[in-house]
Write a structure and sequence with these properties.
about 260 residues; two-stranded antiparallel ribbon; binds 2-hydroxyethylsulfonic acid
Length: about 260
């Protein structure tokens, strides 16, 4: 808690989509949010928006794959009395090629952001989260962390890595005052996820959601993350998978044509 008793929540990848929505929801739920992402202008705008709405928000430009930068960020957080919540949201997909032709550079980059980035920030903030006496680590994995689909292997492998990080950390730190929550969303329509995956090919990106009545929104996921974080601290939502009603599995989606 801060001096005023306000819990501090750090959110990575907060420049758009689920990360930005989570910052808004956690701020509304009474957290001082520290919003981080590479795009400084975006997180500064978000922090300004939240501050103008009467919330506590601080922006910090950060590339989670840069360990030295992550360590410097953790040192900066020393000015807060404690750090209570870490939401590891930074990550994403690149490409949807079959294993036979997938680009190893894409696979490497997805592992770097989704797994190593989460590892960096979690390692750097774990001492402060533990010292808070009541810490929460959230790992945003994906339904891709729990089953595969054709064309998804690079992303699926990375998200399985994020899932394993969360599951193993929970085993290793049991007995300390830190919970590990894994949130695994399925189809979420955000402004950037599919567009980034298909490198700006908006036609391909739109096909992901074609005919799907109501894909999840960033707000749906942020609401779920905030619900899990705001349970009493002895309640650990280990793993929560959420999908739109129209999606029964990674490979079974109802599309109205
Ligand atoms: C996003 C879910 O189905 O695009 O994490 O892999 S999916």
């Amino acid at each position: 808690m801060s001096a005023t008793g306000t819990p501090i929540a750090v959110i990575t990848g907060a420049s758009s989509g689920i990360g930005a929505a989570t910052a808004r929801h956690l701020a509304a739920a009474g957290h001082h949010v520290v919003v981080t992402a590479r795009r400084k202008d975006r997180i500064e705008a978000l922090a300004a928006e939240l501050t103008a709405a009467g919330h506590l928000a601080t922006a910090y430009a950060l590339d989670v794959t840069d360990r030295a930068a992550v360590d410097a960020f953790a040192a900066e957080l020393d000015r807060f009395p404690s750090v209570n919540v870490l939401v590891n949201n930074a990550g994403g997909a690149l490409g949807a090629d079959p294993v036979a032709t997938g680009d190893p550079a894409d696979w490497r980059q997805m592992y770097e952001t989704n797994v190593i980035g989460t590892l960096h920030v979690t390692q750097a903030l774990l001492p402060a989260l533990t010292a808070s006496g009541d810490g929460t680590v959230v790992v945003l994995s994906s339904t891709a962390g729990h089953g595969t689909y054709e064309g998804g292997a690079g992303y699926v492998a990375a998200k399985h890595g994020a899932h394993v990080l969360a599951e193993t950390l929970r085993l290793e730190i049991v007995g300390t005052p830190v919970r590990v929550i894994e949130i695994a969303p399925g189809m979420v329509r955000t402004e950037e996820f599919a567009s980034t995956r298909f490198r700006g090919d908006e036609e391909k990106a739109a096909k992901v959601y074609e005919g799907v009545a109501e894909p999840l929104t960033a707000d749906d996921v942020a609401d779920t993350i905030t619900w899990a974080i705001t349970r009493p601290s002895h309640v650990n939502v280990d793993l929560l998978l959420l999908r739109p009603r129209a999606q029964a599995s990674n490979t079974k989606v109802h599309r109205e044509v």
